[in-house]
Specification:
By secondary structure, the protein is α+β, with helices and mostly antiparallel strands. The chain is 13% helix and 31% strand. The radius of gyration is 17 Å and the shape is globular. It starts with 27 loop residues before the first strand and ends with a strand. It comes from Pedococcus dokdonensis. Residues 62-119 form the Cupin type-2 domain. InterPro entries: Cupin_2, QDO-like, RmlC-like_jellyroll, RmlC_Cupin_sf. This is Cupin domain protein.
Length: 162
């Protein structure tokens, strides 16, 4: 494997770094207290990746087994314990544990034991913000018909496993 083609053709570099301080308010807060921080949106990385900090408040939550057709997803546990499905079984992951799921890989995650936090990395950088925000609206009481839910999930590349 070799390096990909250059994404920057300049010869002097440029001032383009972004900083998000740890005390920045979350971008989405769910009714159950879960919080999502948009660290790097796909649009800000030229579509290369998206990076989000997910903070579980405590009540059990998280998606069951599913897969994505267009993107890879990775998890890095920061605090607490997160149960992550690897396509075969649910694994208890702790701070410092890392899970990578290629496109098509079965996965899911839950916080079974109280508050926890993790980084979610998506590559390429799909617009996951609309997915997180849509789920928050539904959790707050917005309703969707079965057809609307199916369309929403398909649009956001989520395919559920029975």
């Amino acid at each position: 494997m070799s390096y990909p083609p250059p994404l920057y053709e300049g010869s002097t570099g440029e001032v383009s770094a972004t900083i998000r301080l740890s005390d920045t308010e979350p971008d989405v807060v769910y009714p159950n207290g879960n919080r999502v921080h948009y660290l790097s949106r796909g649009e800000s990385t030229g579509g290369l990746f998206g990076l989000y900090r997910w903070e579980f408040a405590g009540p059990r939550s998280g998606p069951d087994a599913h897969f994505h057709k267009t993107l890879a997803e990775s998890f890095y546990v920061l605090s607490g314990e997160v149960s992550i499905f690897d396509g075969t079984r649910w694994n208890t992951t702790r701070p410092g544990d890392y899970v990578h799921v290629p496109p098509g890989g079965l996965h899911g995650f839950h916080n079974e034991w109280g508050p926890a936090s993790m980084l979610l990395h998506f590559a390429p950088g799909a617009p996951r913000e609309g997915y997180f925000e849509g789920l928050a609206r539904v959790a707050a009481g917005e309703t969707m018909t079965d057809r609307e839910r199916d369309d929403f999930m398909r649009y956001h590349d989520n395919y559920w496993v029975d």
